[in-house]
Amino acid sequence: MERFAQVPDLPSIQGFLEPVLRALATMQGAGTTAEIRASVVRLLALEPGVVDRPHGRGRDRRTELEYRLAWARTRLRKQGLVEPDGPRRWRLTDAGWRAVHAPADTRSAEVGKAGSP
């Protein structure tokens, strides 16, 4: 079970795993966190009001979207599907590329293996 406030129209952390992989694939396998964010927003056609909603915990100035994308990248890294590629930059691993090109039913099972943060 995820430990965050329910935000209508915004996928759960789990719901961002495949879009992050697809976003990286559209960027030839690597991109900055800002590029990944922009690509995911386009892929999911997220509304500006949803995209800009603050996370709202303590001094964390991130939006809820940025918070969930950060956890999605962390889960994908733990699965070995993405890896850091410099400061605020991520890339698909060989396993990540295989997951992107796998049939949808297989991909969903592969990408869904990670547990809670």
Describe this structure in words.
This protein is mainly α. The protein has a single domain, classed as Orthogonal Bundle (Arc Repressor Mutant, subunit A). Helices cover 49% and strands 9% of the residues. The chain contains six helices and three strands, in the order αβαααββαα. It has helices at residues 17-26, 33-44, 48-51, 64-78, 94-101, 104-111, and strands at residues 30-32, 82-84, 89-92. The longest helix is centred in the middle third of the chain and has 15 residues, at 64-78. The radius of gyration is 14 Å and the shape is globular.
Descriptors for this entry?
mainly alpha, 3-stranded antiparallel sheet, 6 helices
Topology:
Layout: H1 17-26, E1 30-32, H2 33-44, H3 48-51, H4 64-78, E2 82-84, E3 89-92, H5 94-101, H6 104-111
Helix pairs in contact: 1-2, 1-5
- How many distinct domains? 1
Q: Specify the CATH architecture.
A: Orthogonal Bundle
Helical content band? 40-55%
* Total DSSP E strands: 3
Summary, kept brief:
With 117 residues, the protein is mainly alpha-helical.
